[in-house]
Design a protein that fits this description.
Length: 638
């Protein structure tokens, strides 16, 4: 309502300005158009000749100033004239003596408010327009209010999300339960002298539901909820961020008990001393004020600060000490049970076919977080709507999984028959070596249909069970599987292509990690080579600090090359002994473009595949449950 009134006031001022301009400039022109303007000498000649019947003299100047006058009148023939002259008094006496009817208009006195209006009005108008633009740029009502907090306050419109809407993180919800109980009944804790953690830090990879869990905590406690981002406190003016922190906590004290949520805490809580400018930049001043406010919590304060970040390693140690953020809740990627619970939450209020099994979907999506699973369900719903279906089926859900993992299909990309054949052998090489090597993740699907922005084909492996440790033999097998696509190209075509660039990168990274970090080199022994050094420049970047000599560096390179060469030879032997089988599977893949796990298993056993894709009398292998141990891999071999 206030904005409407101010806008109306501005419009009225503009209308008044237009009317004043019309009165000042247009009205005299309209008056002058009623008379024929003549020269002063012609006027004197007509006066002396007795041709003038009526004469009117007007002088609007202030007394004491020049006596310039406006002379207008009417001649004997009815013509109306207008001219300008001086010494109006003598002229009036002369005209009266000649028998002309003379009228003289008294000078108009200017009022004080008129003078004030003409002098100050333009200045006030310019100031009003300037303030209006400032008002608009600040989003309305925030002129010169840079120090006010940008946090959104939810009272009557507080989040309706509860812990029932958050799945896959039971331990995290348990950690927050006592915070919720404290907000509901703080006397229960104060009676025993207990201190509830006032700072809770949610840590986890992107998409694991940190923001959702904070909103659910506010919904469970049914208290006011302040929501802000770490970047809201950082501005180009030094001191603005600190003032916003003070204003946020001052507002929270008026609404306590309440929850303050700061998302992306690393934007404001980075390690102090970063950068070349020392500790006087705006971000560090903001962090200092935040540390002071966290220390300022007293026993009567019932405000809870919850922050979320996916980069806890770069936060300032003073921010993480007990008494500030003294409770850290880790939200990791969900396991198979967590994924099943998350899928059930996102599948509410959607129509699915009766053959949709949530447990199968959970086992086929290892490594995906809550945001990925939500996107998976949405992609399946979009595909079902595109095909004019009333319900979402397993076909759409399977396609949704592949879209999330590898990107959408790009059937419009034109690939020559020669390149298509190379891609087919490349992917079959990955799949066959993965099948032959022991303890390798089962092959779930092989495809030569381009997906995403780079993949011309892919082999999808999914693990059978949760694994948190990886042996040396497992890593060797993994490198051999990565190199097998390049081996297949060399065996069949006698040449190699650039299609194995990503495979070589991941194989080299794994081999170097074995030698320098995991102590899996017999020659170099159980020594960790290389440290991660913190570079204080533009944040807290990580660089490698070599703590070894050039001789050791040469030995590391030789060991890495030896591992790569041994794995390459292993993959070459496996595919060389099964060349005919590789040709058969590649021809089927070229014809069908996609092979699922059961079809590939049948072809590896020498069986045929029906036209509908089913292997005769072949049982479908068990579905995988999880992505493995978390070392660099994503189950996709391009």
């Amino acid at each position: 309502m206030g904005r409407v009134v101010k806008n109306l006031g501005l419009y009225l001022v503009l209308i008044l300005l237009v009317v004043t301009m019309v009165n000042m400039f247009l009205t005299p022109e309209e008056t002058q158009r009623q008379y024929d303007e003549i020269s002063y000498s012609q006027f004197l000649s007509e006066l002396e000749a007795g041709h003038i019947r009526i004469l009117q003299i007007r002088n609007n100047n202030q007394p004491g100033e020049s006596s310039a006058a406006v002379i207008q009148g009417e001649m004997q023939n009815g013509q109306r004239f207008l001219t300008y002259g001086l010494e109006a008094g003598k002229l009036a006496d002369k005209a009266a003596a000649l028998g002309v009817m003379v009228t003289v208009e008294a000078p108009q006195k200017s009022t004080w408010w008129g003078s004030l209006l003409t002098t100050l009005f333009p200045t006030l108008l310019l100031m009003g327009v300037w303030l209006y633009f400032l008002y608009s740029m600040q989003g309305g009502g925030r002129v010169m209010s840079f120090s006010k907090s940008k946090a959104k306050l939810f009272l009557d419109n507080r989040p309706k999300v509860t812990f029932a809407d958050v799945a896959g993180c039971d331990e995290s919800k348990e950690e927050l339960q006592e915070v919720i109980h404290f907000l509901k009944s703080p006397e229960k804790f104060t009676r025993l002298g207990a201190k509830v953690p006032r700072g809770v830090l949610l840590v986890g990879p992107p998409g694991t539901g940190k923001t959702l869990l904070a909103r659910a905590a506010a919904g469970e406690a049914n208290v006011p909820f302040f929501c802000a981002s770490g970047s809201d406190f950082v501005e180009m003016f030094v001191g603005v961020g600190a003032a916003r922190v003070r204003d946020l906590f001052a507002q929270a004290k008026r609404y306590q008990p309440c929850i303050i949520f700061i998302d992306e805490m690393d934007a404001v809580g980075r390690h102090r001393g970063a950068g070349l400018g020392g500790g006087h930049d705006e971000r560090e001043q903001t962090l200092n004020q935040l540390l002071v406010e966290l220390d300022g919590f007293d026993g009567s304060d019932s405000s809870i600060l919850i922050a979320a970040t996916n980069r806890p390693d770069i936060l300032d140690p003073a921010l993480l000490r007990p008494g500030r953020f003294d409770r850290h809740i880790t939200m990791d990627r969900p396991d198979v049970r967590g994924r099943e619970a998350i899928l059930k939450v996102h599948m509410k209020e959607k129509a699915f076919d009766n053959d949709v099994d949530v447990s199968i979907l959970a086992r086929r999506t290892p490594g995906l977080v809550g945001a990925d699973l939500e996107n998976l369900i949405n992609e399946a719903a979009l595909l079902a709507a595109r095909h004019d279906k009333d319900k979402i089926g397993m076909e759409e859900l399977e396609e949704g999984i592949e879209r999330v993992m590898a990107g959408p299909e790009r059937r419009s990309r034109l690939i020559s028959e020669k390149e298509k054949k190379i891609i087919a052998y490349h992917e079959v090489g990955h799949a066959m070596v993965a099948k032959v090597l022991p303890d390798s993740d089962p092959v779930h699907k092989i495809s030569i249909i381009p997906r995403g922005h780079a993949a011309l084909g892919y082999t999808l492996q999914l693990p059978e069970e949760d694994r948190f440790l990886t042996s040396r033999s497992d890593l060797i097998n993994r490198i051999a599987i990565l190199l097998s696509g390049r081996v297949a190209e060399e065996l069949v075509f006698g040449d190699v292509t650039s299609g194995a660039a990503n495979d070589l990168d991941r194989a080299t990274q794994t081999a170097r990690q074995m030698v320098t970090e995991l102590g899996m080199s017999e020659k170099l022994g159980l020594v960790k080579l290389g440290n991660k050094r913190e570079e204080i420049f533009l944040g807290r970047d990580i660089a490698e600090d070599r703590n070894y000599s050039e001789e050791i560096a040469y030995a590391i390179d030789q060991e890495v090359k030896g591992i790569i060469d041994a794995c390459y030879s292993k993959a070459r032997n496996i595919l060389g002994e099964r060349r005919e089988l590789m040709d058969k599977i590649a021809s089927v893949l070229l014809e069908r473009e996609v092979l699922d796990g059961s079809e590939f298993e049948a072809l590896m056993k020498g069986d045929t595949v029906d036209s509908d894709g089913a292997a005769p009398d072949e049982a479908v292998p068990p579905l995988p449950e999880s992505r493995g141990d978390g070392l660099p891999r994503n189950g996709l071999l391009a």
